[in-house]
Design goal:
The structure holds three protein chains of three kinds.
Chain A lengths: L8 H15 L1 H17 L6 E7 L2 E7 L3 H18 L2 H7 L6 H37 L13 H26 L2 H20 L6 H6 L2 H25 L6
Antiparallel strand pairs in A: 1-2
Chain B lengths: L10 H14 L12 H8 L3 H13 L3 E4 L3 E4 L3 H27 L4 H15 L1
Antiparallel strand pairs in B: 1-2
Chain C lengths: L3 E10 L2 E11 L4 E5 L6 H8 L7 E6 L8 H5 L1 E4 L11 H11 L5 H10 L13 H14 L4 E5 L7 H17 L3 E5 L3 H4 L5 E6 L2 E7 H5 L2 E7 H9 L3 E7 L2 E7 L7 H6 L3 E4 L2 H9 L6 H5 L1
Helix pairs in contact in C: 4-5, 5-6
Classes of the chains: A mainly alpha, B mainly alpha, C alpha/beta.
Chain lengths: 242, 124, 297
């Protein structure tokens, strides 16, 4: 009898990551486009503005910060993650050597890689926006933080990762065994409702006072939890091309 | 030769008969190596296991012998034995059919023998 | 070690029982035809072999392991059907490169030659191919991967007759060059019969026959002759089909339950003929007593 091939999960995951990163590049280009659009849209007023005047003096301040770009990137990560779990992509995985486990781990790694790239893109767009305004509208800037500190970078990265992780978990649980589908969908639904309906009960104030690093760690922990759950559910899921 | 798939004769039997034909026609000579099941498979576009069954039939009738690791070869007296067998089997079967048919057409035994004699004379 | 071993395999989808207590084994590298009507359970069984679906009860072992979510099984198995899909951004040439990256026994040269023979442009995208070209490409992809277990679910769907003949031969030649287990389903058994070693017949979720092709064909025979002569005979054996026209009966019966020799039958004016594998499948899966004539009577 022919000798069977022995293959390691690591090797296959590496190959899948390589191909998935290449083939889904359009997701990153869509992010760039959306960010640029927002950059242009908010170039006049920033993410917030205020003004005051007294006598003959009118002062107008516009605030330009990373916030809007972070929010866009986070939402983008969630959507991309959902897409990765869509049927069309799942059945593409079946055309090569893969298992549910390898495909899920590969998707997670790709999300992390894309999140990292997204942070870089985000910061670049932000700088470009500022540069653009300086050159085009010749306004004066009061610079609070010129260089993005590593802790902010990590915070952005972990936020985007978190949203990606939630997206993957949500998408995977929708295709998983029925019980899990029901349980998780209900759980996530209630969480969203709770967060939006009762923002006061969550003491976000204290959270905001925490140093960025701690928030980042918290986000990464939750993301890791989501990733683990995603793998667990995927391992139990059946798949079919029909 | 093309393999007939219409269901009348199993493919492995057709292979066996073809091989016997080749032996009678001296295209496969005594102590000559015969085609392997893989060669037959490729030649007739059939599964090698089927071809192998055909070879096995000849092996069991000792028209072929096996040399370990080298393949199958035609036995010394294969040709004579095939001719003898055919004579017996085929002609017997044909004789049966003619006799039955004659009965069905209400031809008497004597008339039948006359017909056969005439056919033989016609071919001479 | 059996290549595939199933014990009491059952699978249902809601209330539909796709497979009911299937027990079967595939013991060596062979070309096996998986035959059955639509909805018989073929695809479900193959999906379980591929590790895509989980059995509800019973067990399935492929290469001695549970195939579900098993990367080792996946490395030695390929499942080709008309829903094989690839990213929109890959040309056929890129798809072949990807295949070569994943499958250790991949034969890229051979793929190029086969696709060139079929006249398929490698710069095209998978989504741009016609139905027949798609089937051809998918089959080539499956063949050149040289996986120990190669499952082809209706691989010739959409191909024209000439190219079908060519590719049945291609399957045979690849099997001779690199033996592996081929499981091929088709609704055109007569086309692929000659390259098969065994048949596995599935009907209504059960395996009703699994045998070498010749044994399978010899199960049933056709009898044709005067009704009065045949009447007694038919009562003593299992009859699968019967038609009486003007005092002549045609019947399909179980050969193993017939204890009269062919010579004696011939003397009674009864003709005995063999059936094609297709016909045997049809009679074995026909619901007894139901045939199309009944609708018109």
């Amino acid at each position: 009898m022919q000798s069977l091939t022995n293959i390691s999960l690591k090797t296959i995951v590496k190959k899948q990551v390589k191909w998935k990163v290449k083939l889904n590049i359009s997701a990153l280009s869509s992010l760039v486009i959306v960010q640029i659009i927002f950059a242009v849209l908010t170039s006049s007023f920033g993410s917030g503005s205020y003004g005051s005047g007294s006598g003959n003096l009118d002062v107008h301040f516009s605030i330009y910060s990373l916030d809007i770009f972070l929010i866009i990137s986070a939402i983008w990560a969630f959507i991309v993650a959902l897409l990765f779990t869509a049927k069309a992509y799942r059945i593409d995985d079946l055309s090569v050597v893969s298992s549910r486990t390898s495909s899920t781990i590969a998707n997670i790694l790709v999300m992390i890689i894309y999140s990292f790239i997204a942070v870089i893109l985000m910061i670049s767009t932000y700088y470009l926006q500022v540069l653009g305004i300086l050159l085009v509208e010749k306004k004066s800037f009061v610079i609070d933080h010129l260089f993005i500190s590593p802790s902010v970078f990590i915070l952005c990265f972990s936020s985007i990762c978190l949203f990606g992780a939630i997206g993957l978990l949500f998408g995977t649980s929708l295709k998983g065994p029925v019980v899990i589908k029901l349980f998780l969908s209900t759980f996530i639904l209630f969480s969203f409702i709770y967060i939006f309906m009762a923002p006061n009960s969550i003491n976000l104030g204290s959270l905001i006072m925490l140093p960025n690093i701690m928030i980042s760690v918290l986000y990464m922990l939750v993301a890791t939890l989501c990733f683990s759950l995603t793998i667990w559910i995927a391992n139990k899921s059946e798949v079919s091309r029909k | 030769m093309h393999v007939h798939l219409d269901g009348t004769t199993p493919i492995y039997m057709q292979i066996a008969e073809w091989l016997q034909h080749e032996i009678i026609a001296d295209r496969l000579q005594a102590d000559q190596k015969v085609y392997s099941q893989y060669q037959l498979a490729e030649l007739f576009n059939i599964n090698p296991a089927t071809a192998g069954k055909g070879l096995t039939i000849l092996l069991e009738e000792q028209l072929l012998y096996k040399k370990r690791g080298l393949g199958m070869f035609v036995t010394m007296d294969a040709k004579e034995r095939i001719l003898l067998k055919r004579r017996n089997e085929i002609l017997t079967k044909m004789a049966q059919e003619i006799v039955l048919e004659a009965k069905r057409l209400l031809v008497s035994d004597e008339e039948l023998l006359v017909l056969i004699r005439k056919t033989q004379e016609g071919l001479e | 070690m059996n290549i595939i071993q199933c014990e009491e395999l059952s699978k249902s989808f809601g209330r539909r029982h796709a497979l009911q207590r299937v027990t079967c084994a595939i013991d060596a590298e062979k070309i096996i035809g998986i035959i059955g009507r639509n909805g018989a359970g073929k695809s479900t069984l193959l999906n379980i072999f591929a590790g895509y679906l989980k059995p509800m009860t019973g067990s399935c072992k492929v290469f001695n392991e549970n195939p579900f979510n098993n990367i080792q099984t996946a490395a030695n198995m390929i499942f080709i059907d008309d829903r094989l899909s690839f990213s929109d951004y890959l040309s056929l040439e890129d798809i072949l490169k990807m295949g070569a990256d994943f499958y250790p026994n991949w034969q890229n040269e051979l793929a190029y030659r086969m696709l060139d023979y079929a006249g398929i442009d490698l710069t095209a995208k998978h989504q741009q191919l016609s139905k027949g070209q798609l089937a051809t490409f998918n089959l080539v992809y499956g063949l050149v991967s040289r996986c120990s277990l190669t499952i082809l679910d209706e691989p010739m769907n959409g191909m024209d007759e000439a190219i079908r003949t060519d590719f049945y031969r291609a399957i045979l030649k690849e099997y001779l060059a690199f033996p592996r287990t081929f499981l091929i389903t088709s609704h055109h058994l007569q086309e692929m019969e000659s390259i098969l070693e065994e048949i596995l017949l599935i009907d209504e979720g059960s395996v009703i026959a699994h045998a070498p092709l010749d044994e399978f064909k010899e199960q049933l025979i056709s009898l044709h002759g005067p009704s009065d002569e045949l009447a007694d005979l038919l009562s003593e054996t299992e009859v699968y089909a019967q038609k009486i026209v003007a005092g002549v009966t045609s019947a399909v019966v179980d050969a193993s339950k017939l204890f009269i020799s062919e010579e004696i039958l011939r003397t009674k004016g009864i003709k005995v003929s063999a059936l094609t594998a297709s016909e045997v499948c049809m009679y074995l899966t026909n619901k007894k007593g139901r045939d199309i004539d009944a609708i018109f009577d």
